[in-house]
Amino acid sequence: MERRKFLRRSMAGGMAAGFAGALKPANAAEAGNGRHSDLPSKFTPSAYSLPSSKYSPFTTPDYYTYADDLFIERNQSGKPHKGKVLAAVEAHSDDIPLFAGGTVAKLIDEGYTGYLIRVSNDEAAGRTLGFGVVQNEKDIQGAAKALGCKKAFSFYYRNHRMDDNAAIEIRARLIFLFRFLQVNTVFAMDPYDHYDENPDHLVVGKAVEGACWMSGSGKDYPEHYKAGLKPASIREKYYHPRSPQGHNLVNRIVDINSYIDHKVQTNVANTGKGPAGIAGSRLRNELAKQGKKLPLLGDDDETANFQYVKRFLMDDFHLMGQQFGLEYAEAFRYIGPPPNYRENIRRFVDEHAVPL
Ligand SMILES: [Zn+2]
């Protein structure tokens, strides 16, 4: 059974009209696209299905559960993040470009220094296993450049076999890089991505989650400090969802309209993996052999690749953005800096302490 049919569209008018409205069960008569929910009225939906263009299975997930403190992150002027460092960690070369490329490009443009860290060797994406490794090794450099990253790293664990490796080793390698690069903010696949069929995603998500916490510890891997490294204080985490199997908790929507072309270019750079790369020029050449053309794809391969990705693969991000009154959007489970407990307790003590 197609999952989208299980819990039908319930957000069509709700999110655009205001967040509170989205919490009402779907009204069959109001569904803008003609679909309706079979959910009996005594139930309140707790997950929201997303409108889909049906152009790509690799863009937005099937369902989101929205937090009541959902925040829309918009463009900031100047370079408010100057001096900060982000690491965008991905199992595969197409993960960050597809799901978080617009937001990574946005934060780098707003002052962050960015690094792209790929954990697999992407051997499963290529004409042969060997070709896949080489092509994706090349592609990740192009993707990093399109995002504005300073450097790309690869760990080269075998594709789709990452659960065969010791989780503690992957985590330790991330801790080393987080300390070496002095990372403040990470992007990664949500480690609690429900229904994700790809084992690599969950392995990487969990490794990142642990590494974020342990990178700041003085007791974990103390030899790093003997070698001159310093603890990394990772205070912000952007966990992105997975499609098509995803069902994610979301508390942050990022307006990526100003960065949609960066995101497109980042995906075009992925020629070895994912639905983008040279798919546009391939379609253009296929049509030419039949004596046809699609005006959208223009008159050269470069235009065809760009327009194909923007029109077909970004459309689901457009549909999602529309729910929030935005042109294009990406969604995250964002975890920000923890409150300063010690300072809060000290303030309480200062206010309430009385003489003995
Ligand atoms: Zn992946």
Could you characterize what this model shows?
The protein has helices spanning 3-6, 14-17, 19-22, 95-109, 129-147, 167-181, 199-214, 223-226, 260-268, 279-289, 301-313, 315-322, 341-352; strands spanning 48-49, 63-73, 85-90, 113-120, 151-157, 185-189, 236-240, 247-255, 329-335. The protein is of the alpha/beta class and 356 residues long. A 9-stranded mixed sheet has the order 1-2-8-9-7-6-3-4-5, sandwiched between helices. Mean pLDDT is 89; it is low at 1-34. Bound molecules: zinc ion.
General form: globular
Low-confidence stretches: 1-34
Helix content percent band: 25-40%
Largest sheet: 9 strands, mixed
User: What small molecules are bound in this structure?
Assistant: zinc ion
Question: What does the average pLDDT come to?
Answer: 89
- How many helical stretches? 13
Keywords:
38% helix; binds zinc ion; nine-stranded mixed beta sheet
Give a brief outline of the structure.
The chain has 356 residues and is α/β, with parallel strands linked by helices. Helix content is 38%, strand content 17%. Helix 6 crosses helix 7 and helix 9 crosses helix 11.
Give the helices and strands, then pairings.
Layout: H1 3-6, H2 14-17, H3 19-22, E1 48-49, E2 63-73, E3 85-90, H4 95-109, E4 113-120, H5 129-147, E5 151-157, H6 167-181, E6 185-189, H7 199-214, H8 223-226, E7 236-240, E8 247-255, H9 260-268, H10 279-289, H11 301-313, H12 315-322, E9 329-335, H13 341-352
Parallel strand pairs: 2-8, 3-4, 3-6, 4-5, 6-7
Antiparallel strand pairs: 1-2, 7-9, 8-9
Helix pairs in contact: 4-9, 5-9, 6-7, 9-11, 10-11
The structure holds zinc ion.
Zinc ion binds at residues 91-92, 95, 198, 201.
